[in-house]
Amino acid sequence: MKAFVSAVALAALFMVACQPVNTPRSEKSGGTLHVNISDIPHVVFPGQVDKRSEQIILYQVYSGLVKYNPRTLEIIPSVAKSYNISADGLTYSFVLDSRAKFQDDRCFPQGKGRHITAADFKYSIEQICRNRLTHDRGVSQQVRNIEGADAFLPTAAKSDSLNISGIAAPNDSVLVIKLKKPDDLFLHFLAGTNALVFAREAFNAYGVNGTAGSGPFRMKYPSIIGQQIVLTRVSDYWESEDNVPLPYLDSVVFSFITSPKKEIYLFEIGKANVVFDVATAQITPFLESNIEKFESNPPAYIMSSTINQNNDKRFNLLTADVNGLYINSQNYFDFTRVYLKMPEAKVTAAE
Questions:
Q1: How far is CA 185 from the centre of its chain?
Q2: Is the preceding peptide bond at 222 cis, omega within 30 degrees of 0?
Q3: What is the pTM of this model?
Q4: Tens of pLDDT, residues 133-153
């Protein structure tokens, strides 16, 4: 009997030893955020954005040299931990964070994502340019202003070679971009969806239908099917906050209900935490029938407003447990630091 117990104990110890080491998490960590966006994405890949939903999801799956702070819309470092602009405004030098890596995927040896290098950014910008020209999309003035673009662009759609001479990667961690004339919008181009980084291996394997990203969330399924896209946290994502690994959320589920009445109903029955861009005609009756949920202590619902590109006022609905989600009219959302936690009730003077 003792021998049997010992064997069981040893087996249990062996099983525990074989379990992966749990990454330290905090009270902010965990949970699933449900978001509805009222248009249906077609492709989620850098340089292919035609819809609002594609842009929002793309920023969660891929990373760039720099990015927008969603609260202030200022440019801040991302994969590039630092950067310098020359005094004449013509040379941009970026130093990459050595921790940044691509998500694990079968396109890599042993399925393990490798570290992101400066050459990957050069390749991504050039490949996006070629792909856009191949599909008659055109390229931005920011790209045309890079040294060597004039020689590259006329033949890019017909050639397999990729080389804009003004984009150089002298080593794995340094990227240098030289412009023909100063451009105050160039950093904004680099923070946009046409300068997000992807791996050559992934593009060779899947083209624009790939889902092997470089951001904090991965697409759970390899293609867009049905009325949902599920993103799951990258467990070995390189960024952290207060020594706690990011992102906080375990997953984000995007639904694409296009009917205003149906998406508000989705919110009312608790199937969506966030609904973007609700028109005044729909928000007024919803407020009238749910005013107590906005005025309760703590509130159950929160609402914010933005002005869209047509100068129309739009409203965004959030359940009160959504923290750290800054909503802006430019659709630059970052779910990396979003977490779910109900606010505490406020103590009034009478109490």
A1: 21
A2: no
A3: 0.89
A4: 888 888 999 999 999 999 999
